[in-house]
UniProtKB/TrEMBL annotation:
Pfam families from the UniProt entry: FtsX, MacB_PCD
An example molecular function term from Gene Ontology annotations: transmembrane transporter activity
UniProt KW keywords: Cell membrane, Membrane, Transmembrane, Transmembrane helix
The keyword NADP is annotated on this UniProt entry: no
Membrane association type: Multi-pass membrane protein
Localization, UniProt: Cell membrane
Ranges annotated as spanning the membrane: 21-41, 277-299, 324-351, 371-394, 415-439, 659-683, 715-737, 743-765
Residue ranges annotated for the ABC3 transporter permease C-terminal domain, each copy included: 283-394, 666-775
Limits of the MacB-like periplasmic core domain: 20-237
Protein name: FtsX-like permease family protein
Length: 782
């Protein structure tokens, strides 16, 4: 029976080649999109699943009540881990983690920067990073050891056995390679090349590591099996309050399994995260696949007159409705299978390019049973959704009527088809509008005045002895003719990490206990960065009292409610000497945070160099490199042009914009395939009518318009329906962005016009072809 259905279905598909081609093409594009999105979602859900103890591992986080709401942070004080281990028996392990960033390690004449973290030894009892050689847990209990990943060991020692070899670390310590572990998997939320003992971190940060009022570390705990997180969180909630003066902080454990997808918080409570992006892309993939299924439904029901006599004859010969439904479903599954084969090929070709753009490592692994299960589910679901309505529709014809020649389409079938076409173009138009808004928002952020002069500004990370020799380095740099000014700071101009609250000022009210972004800088910071002063002056060596003063930005003045004169106002015990005009910091789409700037006394983390406008950057860089290497020999010369580094902040949004462009284009392509197929069938069905109209004197333009208007009306209705939906959705999406583009009429009108042009272009081929056909051939049978 099934063999007969298969043979009959295959013959029918070959008989109607255009319909088959449109259906296979549309479904293959929809299925390829579905496959890629499923692979991407599977990759997202795989993060941190390789840790065997993942269900028992928690990151300690803090909720802190501020005057403007509840903030949540994932860094905690240094003494917390020991306190928790001593007080709570349900804790099996605790471990602190400090991020060292790119640090220099070398052996012999080879020196390379590698990503580093400092961890307590029990970190590796909790997390699963398998050892290749040595015992990494035992190794990290000694401050003069280092653990390398397999790739880091290969980069340093090539094919040699690295065990026991000495590595020079940051030009300061000689460390012994005591263990080698496998590389960190791509689906890990933490990435590193080298592991260093936390005792080494403690020795170099002894001034704050034991203080309860300094939050810089991650603290991880692993609970005993069977422990309740809710009970644990009740016990740890007051620990910070009991140990420090911070009486508004509450401690809680956050599951590792939620760390990647559910890490969003709003006013102290979990509020989405990357899971929202997963749902969005999943929804887009579903709608694109649905558009392809709609094409199949439309073409199948449009060809109902051709299949009606077949149904009538089969029913007259005794075929039941069930067998006819099964036959049409088999046809749908054959088409879907062909489309799936083509979709797998398309996905394989597209994945490498998408990985390059998105920075991901999605792979099509046919050895995983989940992949085959997903493909089979996608095949069956698509085939049944696409074929179900045509199967029941076609099998419902009455044999008496169709065999008498009454094969006109059932009442309402044309209206249903138009409704499906309208739905297709609602989705396509919505995606076009979304793409336009994302593009304009990206341009809006990129063209935003940053508040300082990024041209000819370099940032040099401080390495080795540069921190202790910054005064000498500054002198050497200023002796270079191409350099206009030099300064330094604890933060670069793009990312500011430090923050504090509890600062006092005259007239402060209880509801103004908000958090300030805090940074330390050296003399001439405003001048070198190209910032502008709204009031007062920059830090200068000409004033001996500047070490007691501070500067603030306009956002801080506004939030504190200070009235002129602001200069001279005490901020704590520090008088304000200058007010810096607001500039973009951290997020280019957010309002500048309130900031206080102090004059730093120690070494800074970043050196800033302002070049003269007319200088040759390449010539200047060679001289700057010589001066930097003089201050810190043995370290490779690093620098970043601030303007280029700022533009890199938009890479993530560019990737998101590309995804919307890609999905929107596919939705339009599939919709146009459906329009092309329907217009071809309509032109074929009305061949005699067109011939008669031409004989009666109808022009080619009249014939074209007659065919075109049947499809342009659903497109126009789709545009009118989409406008209010898109306005509501775009307002909601942009509402949380401080620096956002304003929605304008042309964004929506342009999308509608584009869809109309695409639709006209799609159906015009068949319309013009029908209008230019010889009416004699159409009427010769009459």
């Amino acid at each position: 029976m099934l063999k007969n259905y298969y043979r009959h279905g295959w013959r029918n598909l070959l008989k109607n080649k255009l319909s088959t081609l449109v259906n296979v093409g549309g479904l293959s594009i929809g299925l390829a999109t579905g496959i890629i999105i499923l692979l991407w979602i599977n990759d997202e859900y795989s993060f941190d699943t390789f840790h065997k103890n993942r269900d028992h591992i928690y990151l300690m986080m803090q909720r802190v009540q501020r005057g403007d709401g509840i903030s949540v942070g994932d860094v905690t004080p240094g003494p917390l881990a020991a306190r928790l281990q001593a007080q709570l028996p349900e804790i099996k392990y605790t471990a602190r983690c400090g991020f060292g960033g790119q640090e220099l390690i070398g052996t012999g004449s080879k020196n390379i920067y590698q990503e580093s973290i400092y961890i307590d030894a029990h970190y590796l009892d909790m997390f699963t990073f398998p050892a290749i050689s040595g015992n990494p847990v035992a190794a990290l209990q000694e401050p003069d050891n280092i653990v390398l990943t397999e790739s880091a060991a290969s980069r340093l020692f090539g094919q040699e056995n690295p065990m026991g070899k000495i590595v020079h670390h940051n030009g300061q310590h000689d460390l012994k390679v005591a263990a080698v572990i496998r590389d960190v998997p791509p689906n890990s939320t933490v990435h590193f090349d080298i592991l260093l003992p936390f005792r080494l971190f403690s020795l170099s940060n002894a001034d704050w590591i034991d203080r309860w009022d300094n939050n810089r570390l991650q603290t991880w705990v692993m609970l005993q099996p069977g422990s309740s997180l809710a009970v644990f969180n009740q016990k740890v909630k007051p620990v910070i309050q009991q140990a420090s003066d911070e009486k508004t902080a509450e401690l809680f454990g956050f599951p590792l399994t939620d760390r990647y997808l559910h890490s969003g918080f709003k006013n102290g409570k979990p509020s989405g995260g990357r899971i929202e992006l997963i749902w969005l892309l999943g929804l887009i993939g579903f709608f694109i696949l649905l558009i392809a299924c709609i094409n199949f439904m439309n073409l199948s029901t449009a060809r109902s007159e051709q299949r009606a006599r077949e149904v009538g004859v089969r029913k007259a010969l005794g075929a039941g409705k069930r067998s006819l439904v099964l036959q049409f479903l088999v046809e749908a599954l054959i088409i879907t299978f062909l489309a799936m084969v083509l979709a797998i090929l398309l996905a394989q070709l597209a994945i490498p390019g998408l990985n390059r753009i998105s920075g991901r490592s999605i792979a099509f692994n046919f050895l995983q049973w989940k992949i085959w299960a997903g493909l089979l589910s996608l095949l069956l679901l698509t085939g049944l959704v696409a074929g179900s309505y045509p199967a029941f529709f076609l099998s419902s014809f009455q044999p008496v009527k169709v065999l008498k020649g009454n094969v006109t389409q059932q009442k309402g079938s044309g209206l249903f088809r138009k409704g499906l076409v309208t739905f297709q173009f609602i989705i396509s138009t919505f995606l076009i509008i979304t793409t336009i808004v994302i593009y304009k928002q990206l341009q809006h952020g990129q063209n935003r005045p940053v508040g300082y002069n990024q041209d000819n500004l370099l940032e040099i990370p401080v390495r080795g002895d540069m921190g202790s020799k910054q005064a000498l380095l500054k002198t050497d740099l200023l002796a270079i003719p191409e350099i206009e000014s030099v300064s330094a700071g604890t933060d670069d101009l793009l990312r500011f990490g430090g923050g504090t609250n509890g600062i006092q000022w005259p007239g402060k009210t209880p509801d103004q206990d908000f958090e300030f972004t805090v940074t330390w800088v050296q003399y001439d910071w405003v001048k070198t960065a190209g910032l502008q002063l709204a009031d007062g002056r920059d830090f200068s060596a000409d004033y001996g009292s500047d070490s007691l003063g501070c500067m603030v930005n306009e956002a801080a003045v506004k939030k504190m409610g200070l009235k002129p004169p602001v200069v001279g106002t005490l901020l704590g015990s520090n008088p304000i000497i200058g007010v810096v005009k607001d500039f973009v910091a951290n997020d280019p789409f957010r309002s500048p945070p309130p900031m206080v700037i102090y004059l730093g006394k120690g070494g800074m983390g970043h050196t800033f160099v302002r070049l003269h406008k007319a200088s040759d950057p390449q010539q200047a860089l060679s001289k700057i490199e010589a001066a930097v290497k003089k201050a810190s020999p043995g370290f490779p010369f690093e620098f970043h042009f601030t303007k280029e580094a700022y533009q890199q902040k938009f890479n993530g949004l560019r990737s998101s914009g590309f995804m919307f462009n890609w999905t929107g284009s596919l939705a339009i392509l599939i919709s146009c395939l459906g329009l092309f197929g329907l217009s071809a069938f309509l032109a074929e069905r009305r061949t005699k009518e067109i011939g008669i109209r031409k004989v009666m004197g109808a022009s080619a333009g009249t014939i074209w318009f007659m065919l075109a208007k049947e499809f342009l009306k659903p497109v126009g209705i789709a545009f009118l329906v989409t406008i209010p939906l898109a306005i509501f959705a775009m307002h909601a999406a942009l509402h949380s962005i401080d620096y956002r583009v304003e929605l304008q009429w042309w964004m929506f009108g342009g999308a509608g016009l584009l869809m109309m042009v695409i639709a006209i272009g799609t159906i015009s081929y068949q319309g013009i072809r029908a209008a230019r056909a010889n009416p004699v051939k159409a009427l010769q049978a009459e």
